[in-house]
Amino acid sequence: MKKLEAKCEIDVEFYDLDPMNVVxxxxxxxxxxxxxxxxxxKIGYTYDDMKKDNSAYPVAxxxxxxxxxxxxxxxxLVKTEIESVEPSLNINYTITDKKTGEKLLKxxxxxxxxxxxxxxxxxxxxxEFLKKIxxxxxxxx
Length: 141
What we know:
By secondary structure, the chain is an alpha+beta fold. It is built from three helices and eight strands. The protein is 23% helix and 37% strand. The chain is elongated, with a radius of gyration of 16 Å.
């Protein structure tokens, strides 16, 4: 599959900071979720569409590499890239300073499709998701 990319902007808010006046490490997960939702919206296959396909994609694995802390009022750019959709949805993330391009964090998530009605894992992506990915610019391998 061709790698699919999108970019999402994040403004660091005061409530995201820890006592050291840098972004608390747990808030990066929130930033990744925002970027992932933005990517799915751009593809045209949102979490609402997943529900219509009796599907959920819970995070099964997450890797974070902290490079440099983000600061209050900093403008961030989160680049998301779908690496694969079968047998699991694998997304790579890079968070950079929007102005300088300096890299702050690299991350990966692995999400497993689950049939909502049975709560069983499914290792094939829904047909509609594959169609939207192809339309967005990817090709099924």
